[in-house]
Design a protein that fits this description.
about 300 residues; two-stranded antiparallel sheet; 8 strands; globular
Length: about 300
């Protein structure tokens, strides 16, 4: 069977082509290439550095970024100048999977000081003034208390995060969750703003895993590890950004003016619109003070 030729876009987005293009850009124009995981990361960073000699290129995933970094590591030292990678720390710190490489930046984890801040860009955004700006413009009710609200966001996202983190800690060739959508086990109480609440049905999750998991013998270990992480890890360490924004979306739809937000009639959780609004609301100076902002500025000033 004859293989179909690759499209021009597939060729342009191939790891080797991205690296070669970055090398030529730096040689010719002293322009830095920072490879990021996806288009959302690119769209977030580009407006913050529009006047600087840097471009952001999406790799289409963390694993692809790491594969590209591995390819770059085989190049001579002087060929690596001008090419860097930015990836979310996710649960790498928790699972002792942090990589140390001069061309790699984690958001938001500092390799030099080994200090953890947030798992990803979305969690940073909800802990910045961007969330406050968004809420001011969407007008929650008079009884709204921001500090109670942010505590609930952390607590609700943690209920899901402890399962995700435990799954990562116990992963080998197969995971215990094996692609199960954890939001199938989430329900919200939206009866009024003050009592907004979220329930995570761990017992029904256990029943689902007993039917579908390829590692049924490890299900008890999953829940035991989740309980351990819940007891020992500090706030926000276990929260994943896309979980946080989906939970935030539920609140915004039911307890604010909502304006531009879209409701997904299929019943699936959808928060891309919230994430775009948060990115638009970010304060540049807030970001430049983070480990990511400081590192990018250091690269530019070399």
């Amino acid at each position: 069977m004859t293989k179909r030729p690759k499209s021009l876009k597939a060729v342009a987005d191939s790891p080797l082509n991205i690296l070669n293009e970055a090398r030529m850009l730096f040689r010719s124009h002293k322009k830095i290439t920072l490879v990021v995981e996806g288009n959302a990361d690119r769209d977030f960073l580009t407006p913050l550095f529009m006047e600087r000699p840097i471009r952001f290129k999406a790799s289409n995933g963390k694993l692809k970024s790491l594969d590209m970094l591995e390819c770059l590591s085989k190049w001579p030292k002087d060929e690596k100048n001008g090419v860097y990678f930015l990836i979310d720390v996710d649960y790498d710190h928790l699972c002792n999977k942090i990589r140390k490489d001069p061309n790699l930046i984690y958001s938001f984890y500092c390799n030099e000081s080994e200090k953890f801040f947030f798992n990803d860009i979305e969690v940073f955004l909800v802990n910045s003034n961007a969330l406050k700006k968004l809420l001011i413009n969407l007008h929650p009710g008079d009884e709204f208390n921001f500090y109670n609200f942010i505590e609930k966001l952390e607590r609700f996202s943690r209920k899901i995060g402890i399962i995700r983190a435990a799954n990562e800690k116990l992963a080998n060739k197969e995971t215990i969750l094996d692609g199960v959508d954890l939001f199938d086990f989430v329900s919200f109480d939206n009866s009024n703003l003050s009592n907004w609440d979220m329930d995570f049905d761990s017992e029904n999750l256990r029943k689902r895993l007993l039917l579908s998991s390829p590692r049924k013998n490890d299900i008890d270990d999953l829940f035991e590890k989740a309980d351990e992480l819940d007891r020992t890890e500090p706030p926000w360490r276990l929260s994943r950004g896309h979980d946080v924004t989906k939970i935030l979306k539920n609140f915004l739809l039911h307890h604010t003016q909502k304006y531009l937000l879209k409701e997904d009639k299929s019943g699936k959780q959808y928060a891309l619109d919230v994430e775009v609004l948060l990115r638009l609301a970010v304060d540049t100076n807030d970001f430049l003070k983070t480990n990511v902002g400081v590192k990018i500025l250091q690269i530019l000033d070399k």
